[in-house]
Design a protein that fits this description.
This protein is α+β, with helices and mostly antiparallel strands and about 375 residues long. It is built from 13 helices and 18 strands. It has a 5-stranded antiparallel beta sheet. The termini are far apart. The structure holds zinc ion (ZN). The site of zinc ion has 10 residues, from loops.
Length: about 375
C-alpha cells in the first residue's frame, strides 16, 4: 500500500503549490483562500500543514477530512481508519476524483463573512454566560499567576460538552450566529465547532471579538486553536486577530500570543495597554488596525526571550525569530512610533533560560514591580529627552 503522506493528500485534493523552500510547500489556502503564501505544508516535519492567516492546521488526515467535510473524529481509531480507507479508495479510482481547484470554498461550501465586532461581542458574551470554568482550568490559570478576580474579569471559561445545547440557548436569546466564527450550519440548523479546553477571549478594548482555545489535548503540538468554523457551511474564519487591552498610561506592550498578552495586562495591574499578536509573524491585522490604537504611545516590544542567543541555541531558529522581530520593528518605524525592545532574565548578551515569555517572568511576584518601575523610568527619560 502506498504511504499516505501530506504531499499525496494535497495532490488528491488538487492543492497546487506555487513555491517550495526547504521542503516546505506554499499554496493557496483551501480554507481561507489566502494566496500570499500563508498556507504551507511539509512532509519532512511529520506531515503537517498550517495557515498563518486563518489558523487552520493539522496533519494529512485532518486536511483530507476537513476539506471533504467528513466531520470525523480522527482520534477515534475507527473513524481514523475510515478516513484512511476513503483516501485509498480515491487513489484506486473507486470514487470520483475530487479537486478543490481554485475556488473550492466558493463552489462547494458557502461561507459567511465575519460579522462586525459589535455583533461578535454580543454573541460571544452570551456564549460565555452559558459556561463555567472548571477546577482543572482554573488551577492552570492560577499557576500562571492570575488571581480569582483576574480570571473573572477576563472571562476565561471551560468549553466542553454538548455544543448543540449551547447553540440552542443562544438562539433562544435571539442571538444572531451568522458570521460568528465557531458557528456553522448543518442540515439547516446551527452548530458549534470547538475543541475541548478553556476559552481565552480576544479583546478589542472592551469588546470580545474572538477566542483562542487552550486545548486539553494539543493537536499536532498546537496548544492554542482558534474558535473557527472555516470550511463549514455558513462557517467563518477567526481571521487570526490580535488582542488589545487598554491600560491607564500611554504605553503599549506588544507580546506574542493572546493568553500571554492577557496575563501581562492583568499582572501589571492594567497600567499599560497590551497587544498580543497571534504569532510573532502574524502581523496583518496589527498593521491594518493596530497602529491607529497605539499611535500616541511609547511601545515596548516584548517578544519571547528566544529572540536572544542562549545556551545551546540553534542559529536557524534564532534567525527566524529575529526576522519576525525585525518585521514588527519595521512596521513601528514606518509609522513613526517610538519603541524599544524589552528584555528580562538576560545578562552579557545571553538569555539565561529561566523565563521565556514576559508572562513567565511576571508570574514570579517579585518581578512585577521591577518591570513596572523599569517601564515608568524608561518612558520618563524618553519624554525628558524630547
Ligand atoms: Zn487559511
Amino acid at each position: 500500500m502506498q504511504e499516505i503522506n501530506i504531499d499525496l493528500v494535497a495532490n488528491i485534493l488538487g492543492i497546487v503549490p506555487f513555491k517550495e523552500s526547504n521542503g516546505e510547500y506554499y499554496a493557496k489556502c483551501p480554507f481561507c483562500g489566502d494566496n500570499r503564501g500563508k498556507f504551507s505544508y511539509t512532509v519532512i516535519k511529520k506531515n503537517k500543514y498550517h495557515c498563518w492567516k486563518c489558523g487552520n492546521s493539522g496533519n494529512q488526515f485532518k486536511l483530507y477530512s476537513e476539506l471533504k467535510n467528513l466531520d470525523l473524529n480522527l482520534e477515534d481509531s475507527r473513524e481514523f481508519k475510515k478516513c484512511v480507507n476513503l483516501i485509498h479508495q480515491e487513489l484506486n479510482g473507486k470514487t470520483q476524483p475530487f479537486k478543490y481547484e481554485t475556488s473550492f470554498i466558493g463552489n462547494s461550501v458557502k461561507q459567511s463573512n465575519r460579522a462586525c465586532d459589535e455583533k461578535l461581542n454580543i454573541a460571544y458574551k452570551a456564549l460565555l454566560s452559558q459556561l463555567q470554568l472548571n477546577k482543572y482550568h482554573k488551577d492552570n490559570l492560577f499557576k500562571r499567576g492570575l488571581s480569582e478576580q483576574h480570571i473573572a474579569e477576563i472571562g476565561f471559561k471551560t468549553i466542553q460538552g454538548n455544543g448543540n445545547l449551547l447553540t440552542k440557548q443562544l438562539l433562544l436569546q435571539k442571538i444572531d450566529l451568522n458570521g460568528v466564527p465557531g458557528f456553522f450550519k448543518e442540515n439547516n440548523s446551527w452548530k458549534l465547532k470547538y475543541s475541548k479546553g478553556y476559552l481565552c477571549p480576544v479583546y478589542r478594548d472592551h469588546m470580545i471579538i474572538g477566542f483562542q482555545i487552550r486545548v486539553d489535548e494539543p493537536k499536532n503540538g498546537c496548544k492554542y486553536l482558534w474558535l473557527s468554523s472555516a470550511g463549514k457551511e455558513n462557517g467563518c474564519t477567526s481571521g487570526g486577530r490580535f488582542t488589545y487591552l487598554k491600560g491607564k498610561k500611554n504605553v503599549t506592550l506588544i507580546t506574542e500570543g493572546i493568553l500571554k498578552a492577557t496575563i501581562c495586562y492583568e499582572l501589571l495591574d492594567k497600567q499599560f495597554s497590551v497587544i498580543g499578536v497571534p504569532g510573532v509573524d502574524v502581523l496583518n491585522d496589527f498593521k491594518e488596525n493596530g497602529i491607529g490604537l497605539i499611535k500616541n504611545d511609547f511601545v515596548f516590544e516584548c517578544y519571547d526571550m528566544d529572540k536572544k542567543p542562549y545556551s545551546g541555541y540553534n542559529e536557524k531558529t534564532l534567525k527566524k525569530v529575529q526576522s519576525a522581530q525585525h518585521k514588527l520593528h519595521n512596521i513601528l518605524e514606518k509609522s513613526n512610533i517610538k519603541y524599544t525592545s524589552l528584555v528580562w532574565d538576560f545578562s552579557n548578551g545571553i538569555w539565561k533560560g529561566n523565563y521565556k515569555g514576559l508572562d513567565d517572568y511576571l508570574s514570579e511576584k517579585n518581578n512585577i514591580q521591577t518591570v513596572i518601575d523599569y517601564i515608568n523610568n524608561y518612558t520618563k527619560n524618553v519624554s525628558n529627552n524630547k
